[in-house]
Design goal:
Layout lengths: L6 E7 L6 H7 L7 E6 L6 H7 L4 E4 L5 H15 L4 E4 L11 H9 L5 E5 L5 H4 L4 H18 L11 E4 H6 L10 H12 L4 E5 L13 H22 L13
């Protein structure tokens, strides 16, 4: 715990057998109260390794539901466990678990209800081997989103993030995409509800076993990001009523 608040780490796993143990070993277990792993119908030994590591809460999808679908399952379980702070960490070891105390403290202190670990602050992305075309696309999309959302984030595309449980309960994540666009829609929802988002600089690693999406899916994701931002602005102006920006029933 931190400040008497229950800290839960959620791991959206898909074919993470080669990196799960390395990720798990670096988690600060003296601070983290629970770890939840959801395996999105992997074809490797991810679940078996998770069991051997002693992870108490292991969920499994009988069919592949996608990255966003995986997170929906994880966040629902985190709510059921009466978490106070939820940290989403990829088990592919692209992001270091050593930042968990920093992310948790920023939530626990009441400074921010959501915190992103940014690969762009401090040039961590390029140092870590992010392909240059992805870096350029990241900067372009972030510029567009900051203009449309009236915000100033350094990036909208980090997969390492922390939330207060009250925030998670207040946004309609079930209306979001089951694919990679989920993360971006979630940020738009957070801003739409009037919350602030903090950022910390984060080193990152790009290597063979780190998860990534191919060029075609990257293009589709980029189009989805721009449409999400346009939808946000139109909803703010009262010209559109999108499902993702409706209050939870």
């Amino acid at each position: 715990m931190i400040n008497h608040l229950k800290v839960v780490v959620v791991l959206p796993a898909y074919n993470a057998a080669k990196t799960l143990k390395t990720t798990f070993d670096e988690i600060p277990h003296d601070l983290v109260d629970e770890i939840i792993l959801c395996d999105d119908h992997s074809t490797d030994d991810t679940v078996e390794i998770a069991k051997n590591l002693g992870i108490r809460h292991i969920l499994f999808h009988e069919t592949n539901k996608g990255y966003g679908g995986n997170q929906k399952t994880l966040y629902q379980k985190a709510i059921e466990l009466e978490s106070d702070i939820v940290i989403m960490l990829h088990p592919d070891y692209q992001y270091t678990p050593k930042l968990i105390p920093v992310l948790a403290q920023m939530i626990a202190s009441g400074l921010y209800p959501a915190v992103l670990a940014s690969r762009i602050l401090g040039m961590g992305a390029l140092k870590g081997g992010m392909p240059r075309y992805k870096y350029v696309a990241n900067r372009f999309l972030t510029l567009i989103q900051n203009l449309l959302l009236f915000q100033k984030l350094s990036e909208y595309h980090s997969g390492y993030r922390a939330f207060s449980i009250d925030l998670l309960k207040s946004i309609n994540i079930e209306a979001n995409s089951d694919d990679f666009l989920f993360d971006n829609q979630m940020i738009a929802q957070i801003f739409y509800e009037g919350y602030e988002i903090g950022e910390v600089t984060c080193p990152t690693k790009y290597f063979e076993n780190a998860s990534s999406i191919n060029f075609r899916r990257s293009v589709r994701y980029g189009i989805g990001v721009i449409l999400t931002s346009l939808s946000y602005r139109l909803n703010k102006w009262g010209l559109l009523k999108s499902a993702i920006f409706r209050s939870k029933a």
